[in-house]
Amino acid sequence: MSEFLQQLLNGLSLGAIYALIALGYTMVYGVLRFINFAHSDVFMVGAFIGYYLGKLVPEGTLWGGLLVLSGAMIGCALLGMFIERVVYRPLRHGPTLNVLITAIGVSLLLEYTGQIVFGAAPRTFPQIFPTANYHVGSLTISSNQVFVIGVAILLMIALQLIVFKTKIGTAMRAVSLNPKAAQLVGVNNNVVISFTFGLGSALAAAGGILYAMNYPSIDPLMGVMPGLKAFVAAILGGIGNIPGAALGGLLLGTVETFIGGSQFSTYKDAIAFAILIVILLFKPAGLLGKFTIEKV
Amino acid sequence: MKLASRLLLTLVVLALALRAQDTIKIGEYASLTGKEASFGQQSHKGLTLAIEELNAAGGVLGKKLELITEDNQTKPGESATAVKKLISRDKVVALIGEVASGRSLEAAPIAQAAKIPMIAPAATNPKVTQTGNYNFRVCFIEPFQGTVMAKFAQTDLKAKKVAVLSSVSNAYSVGLAKFFKETFTANGGIIVSEKNFSEGDKDFRAQLTAVKAAGADAVFVPSYYTEAALIARQARDLGLNVPFFGGDGWVADQLLEIGGEALNGCYYSTHFSPENQDPVVQAFVKKFKARWGANENPDAFAALGYDAAYVLVDAIKRAGSTEGPKLRNALAATKNFSGVTGVTNIDANRDASKPAAIIAIKNGKLEFLKTVAP
């Protein structure tokens, strides 16, 4: 029983990180109807900004950690908006496929520029937050795990509030529903789309920092695998749907952890992805997604 | 104008002639960047030091040695490309590489087909030299290392129940885990849990939680240093405080950098320890520091890279030629060659049998524990 609870906790903390990254994929898809493959590399840049900022603040202090976290989020938000302005905006009225291919290009550009700028060797991420282990019965909870789950929940609530309770959120939903009509009623599409990219990239940066805190070895290709998993999580939950992305991330993390702890650990990723295929066979739009017929 | 262009042409021809002037080209492929950068950097520094020393002493067969290095970025597939380029474009007479078994296995068939002798400094998987008769190594192999660690677990750690955590996509890890299990169970030990992960994984909490529940006395982790360090940290987070132990894949400064305190009370086996007070070892450490800086400590791979160069040059001298078949025969006949990692005897399988050193990690420092003879 205690092993089950421990694994559940491990799975939820891994899933919370997937969920944070998945939110970025889903938001951009929701507004622009394309998959921003460069998102997983913004996640990597977030971790590296944290690495460099982490050297400037004293290790293991709460305010220092929060400063690093917000610094990385701001840095990545700017990077996300910059990418959108320079690369995606000129292509907005072209076919979706062009934007998709460009996104892959941006992703590779970031990965290999990272190898030149940061170096290809893995770095050790500093302990930016104070750490401790708590024992509850036979359960061991590390402060990092609590922190990851806590920050993820807070950010998801904040995101939900922004999207549904603020003016810019309403504009985002309007652009998502019909960009032309939104423009006609006075919504500035460019501002809304920039904001979406900024918000998504800030979440990716938070994910990057949380990931690096739990697995303190970072390198320019660190975003590839979590990015792929988060993409899958976004699809699983129903792409374009914010609670769906969170649910998908938590589900994928938990399933992966339970298989990793069983005798089938060799097939951890294979089984996790097979479950995804089965779910999509029965629910093609994802768990919380609505199936809409697309006009061709 | 005409004169200038002629002068330029003469200069170019001269430069080309100088470049092509008799040097003996040795090709090196190594993971200088990427996840296992420490392996490639160390072997490269050892190898470069040896080549510079040999050239300072006048080279070999009246010619200087030229080391041509290719970086495989720790990526699968890159070693094959690098080795093809070294053989066909640079026309190297011999190859030195790699530290990792998986990447050595990529290059071995290419060297074999081209009849270019290849010396792996530290690839311990038996298959590396089984590829063909042009593939050599100057280190011990996994059956030996697995046996050493199995006996160490039983006699020194007094462990009866051991869990094994290995990487399924890494030839070194799979091989070492297999040989460890064979000896450990043959001597009456029990493997209580066997869990796998893949290269590049960073989350091991799932496997470790299962290992903890299985009640192991110690955990054998035959992986490379990044994984080993992350595993130790996550294990301590989960309250799994038994000793962890591994093989030469743990050798890197980054092990302690990433793992920190979590690694105290852990052990690994390796080829060489700079803490060994043998005068030959200490002389090498001194030369290494003089060449690469006082903060640079040579590890096992630097020492093996250094020895690989000397073994090769020794064979070139005895062969009196750099032709593939002659050089191969001379390499195969290497006997009682004494280097910084001990005496190298190339056996019928083109492997070297050498002693293993066991290192203990205490208070964030490496301590030389003992040497186990083959």
Question: Could you write a compact summary of the structure shown?
Answer:
Chain A is mainly alpha-helical and 296 residues long.
Number of domains of chain B: 2
Query: Residue-averaged pLDDT of chain A, rounded?
Result: 88
Unreliable spans of chain B are none
CATH domain class name of chain A? Mainly Alpha
Q: Total strand count of chain A, please?
A: 4
Count all strands of chain B and give the number: 14
Shape of chain B: elongated
| Helical content of chain B (DSSP H or I, runs of 4+) | 40-55%
Main pleated sheet of chain A? 2 strands, antiparallel
Cα radius of gyration of chain B in angstroms: 22 Å
- Structural class assignment of chain B: alpha/beta
Q: What is the CATH superfamily of the largest domain in chain B?
A: Response regulator
Task: Please describe the structure with a list of short key phrases separated by commas or semicolons.
heterodimer, A: 296 residues, mainly alpha, ABC transporter involved in vitamin B12 uptake, BtuC, two-stranded antiparallel ribbon, 11 helices, 4 strands, 71% helix, B: 374 residues, alpha/beta, Rossmann fold, 2 domains, 7-stranded mixed beta sheet, 5-stranded parallel beta sheet, 46% helix, elongated
